[in-house]
Amino acid sequence: MRIDLHTHSTASDGTDSPADLVRKAAAVGLDVIALTDHDTTRGHAEALAALPEGLTLVTGAELSCRLDGVSMHMLAYLFDPEEPRLLAERELVRDDRVPRAQGMIAKLNGLGVPVTWEQVRRIAGDGSVGRPHIATALVELGVVPTVNDAFTLDWLADGGRAHMQKHETDPFEALRLVKGAGGVAVFAHPAASKRGRTVPEAAIAELAEAGLDGIEVDHMDHDPDTRARLRGLAQELGLLVTGSSDYHGSRKTCVLGEFMTDPEVYGEITRRATGAFPVPGAGGAR
Ligand SMILES: [Zn+2]
Ligand SMILES: [Zn+2]
C-alpha cells in the first residue's frame, strides 16, 4: 500500500485544486492520501466529490502552533470537522490577518505615524492584508524610504516596535482540541531546521505525554541522520512514525508519494480516530 499523509491544495498554499490533487494521487499509484491544508478543511468536499476509485482519502488539516516562541505545525487527522471548539480555533488562526494588521496600525499610531486602516486596505486591494501593505503605507507617508526599510526593529520586523505576532495555537491546546474532536495528532517535520528554530526533544517528550500520537520522520526537510535520530526518539517515546511528501503542487519541488507511511502505522491512525473515517473513492467525476 502506498500512503502519503501530508499534502496541500489551493484551499491553502498548494497549487493544485483538491480535485486535481486526488486525480494526480491516483495517477501516480497512491492508495491513500491525506489532504492537510493549513488551518482549514475547506478542500475536503471537492476532494471527496472527485475521489477516483481505488484511492482512499484521509481528511485532515495542518494546524499552525507556537511553543515558547517557536512556530511548529501539527497534523490533525480524521477529526470531526464540525466540532465547534476546534473549528473556532481554525477560524481564529485564519481570520487573524485583519485584526493583526489593525493592531500594527494602532501601534504605529501610538508611535506618532498617521497611517490609517483605509490607506492600508486601499494598498492591499483584493489581496489579504499583510505587513508588505503596511510597509508600503509607511513609504507613502515618507516614514521610511523603501518597503525594506520598514522591516527593521524600529518598525515591522519580527519583534519590532510596531510588530504583532500572528495568532498560533499552543500545541498542548491543539492536542486537547484535536483529541476532543476525535482526531489523531502528528507533529509535522519536527526537525525542519531550514524553516527556523525547532522545538527541543524535551518538548516533544512533553507533547507525547500530553497525548501526541506520532511524529513525521520521513520528510524532505529531514536529512538521513535526522531521520535516524527522530526514529530513535519516537521509539523511546512510544510515538508513531509517519512519512509524507508535504506536496504543494508546483510551489515546492517534492512529488506526491516522495515519502510514505507504513501501512501498519496508517492502520493504527485509523483505529485511534473517532471523529471521521477514511473514505474510499467510488470513482468520482474524472
Ligand atoms: Zn508544515
Ligand atoms: Zn505542510
Automatic annotation (TrEMBL):
An example Gene Ontology molecular-function term: 5'-3' DNA exonuclease activity
Gene3D superfamilies to which the protein is assigned, alphabetical: 1.10.150.650, Metal-dependent hydrolases (3.20.20.140)
Domain Polymerase/histidinol phosphatase N-terminal: 3-67
InterPro entries membership: PHP_dom, PHP_domain, Pol/His_phosphatase_N, Pol/histidinol_Pase-like
Matching SMART domains: POLIIIAc
CDD domains in UniProt: PHP_HisPPase_AMP
PANTHER family: EXONUCLEASE, POLYMERASE_HISTIDINOL PHOSPHATASE N-TERMINAL DOMAIN-CONTAINING PROTEIN
Protein name: PHP domain-containing protein
Organism: Streptomyces sp. SID14436
